[in-house]
């Protein structure tokens, strides 16, 4: 079974004003920050040569609980081929899986904590992405 197939996104918390920090990245690094607070970098990949993939970049408010129960200021989203199978395997391997897989129009998402308490997001993109 394939596990991680790439990086789906990088999420981090601002210590102060998240909108101001995102604006700094937009002005100085040219990141196309969207109204939702982040950007999507598009690319075609070897596992999906006919489709388009994305890597998301997002600044979160310091008080965001999206990374909970982790207290880290970042979270990495990894692309996976089959999130349900991987979550099942991680549970069997004794990993600290958080909650259940969630499905939406953006794909399927699961979460696991690494041994240092960092929350990891696992993302199975929708077909064609």
Characterization of the model:
This protein is α/β, with parallel strands linked by helices. It has a single domain, classed as 2,3-Dihydroxybiphenyl 1,2-Dioxygenase, domain 1. 17% of the residues lie in helices and 47% in strands. It has two helices and seven strands, in the order E-H-E-E-E-H-E-E-E. It has helices spanning 18-29, 83-92, and strands spanning 4-13, 38-45, 48-60, 74-80, 96-104, 107-113, 119-124. Strands 2-3-1-4-7-6-5 form a seven-stranded mixed sheet. 19% of the residues are buried. The model has no long low-confidence stretch (mean pLDDT 89).
Mean pLDDT: 89
CATH superfamily: 2,3-Dihydroxybiphenyl 1,2-Dioxygenase, domain 1
Detail the poorly predicted runs. none
User: CATH top level?
Assistant: Alpha Beta
Structural class per helix/strand content? alpha/beta
Euclidean distance between termini CA atoms: 19 Å
Structure keywords:
129 residues, alpha/beta, 2,3-Dihydroxybiphenyl 1,2-Dioxygenase, domain 1, 7-stranded mixed beta sheet, 2 helices, 7 strands, 17% helix, Glyas_Bleomycin-R_OHBP_Dase
Outline the fold blueprint:
Layout (H helix, E strand, L loop, with lengths): L3 E10 L4 H12 L8 E8 L2 E13 L13 E7 L2 H10 L3 E9 L2 E7 L5 E6 L5
Parallel strand pairs: 1-3, 4-7
Antiparallel strand pairs: 1-4, 2-3, 5-6, 6-7
Write a compact overview of the structure shown.
The chain is α/β, with parallel strands linked by helices and 129 residues long. The chain contains 2 helices and 7 strands, in the order βαβββαβββ.
């Amino acid at each position: 079974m394939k596990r991680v197939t790439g990086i789906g996104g990088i999420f981090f918390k601002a210590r102060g004003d998240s909108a101001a920090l995102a604006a700094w990245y937009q002005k100085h690094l040219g990141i196309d920050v969207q109204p939702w607070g982040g950007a999507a970098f598009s690319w075609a990949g070897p596992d999906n040569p006919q489709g388009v993939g994305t890597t998301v970049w997002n600044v979160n408010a310091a008080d965001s609980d999206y990374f909970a129960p982790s207290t880290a200021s970042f979270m990495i989203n990894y692309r996976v081929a089959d999130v349900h199978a991987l979550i099942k395997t991680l549970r069997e391997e004794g990993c600290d899986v958080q909650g259940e897989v969630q499905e939406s129009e953006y794909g399927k998402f699961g979460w696991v904590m690494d041994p240092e308490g960092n929350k990891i997001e696992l993302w199975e993109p929708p077909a064609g992405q």
